[in-house]
Amino acid sequence: MPARFAAAGLFVAWLLAPLPASAGDAKAGQDVFKSECAECHSVAQGRNKKGPSLFGIVGRKSGSLPDYNYSDALKNIGWTWTPDQLHTYLSQPAKQANPGTKMKYDGLDNAKDLDDLLSYLATLH
User: Which of 69, 72, 79, 114 has a CA 20 to 30 Å removed from the CA of 100?
Assistant: First the structure.
């Protein structure tokens, strides 16, 4: 009986494990950024728009830029913007990924565009 529970536990863990972000094309991701993100976000260091600058986003703690007024939901979630976390967040509506966020985004459901965007964001440092 315990072996059955262990196998079931491993299966559930496998189902819940995040998928690794695939390598994308950063140049194509720059175009995705322009069409999906640039209205609200800048890639220039220290230049916020409606949303915070995405310069150095990969590896940064969520809600941590000192000169941007984040929602409490994003400040308190405690994420680090890893490629996997960004993939999870951007692949669904922001209000679903982080209830209470100010970000108004329906999510990017094109897997190639998302991989390309994540590759581009990783170059911003």
Answer: 114
> What Å distances lie between residue 14 and 3, 9, 17, CA to CA?
16, 9, 5
| pTM for this model (two decimals) | 0.80
User: What pLDDT is recorded for position 23?
Assistant: 82
DSSP one-letter code for 22: P
Radius of gyration of the chain measured on its C-alpha atoms? 16
pLDDT tens profile 32-58: 999 999 999 999 999 999 999 999 999
Q: Quote the tokens at residue 7.
A: 């196998």
- Taking alpha carbons only, the member of 60, 40, 49 closest to residue 105 is 40
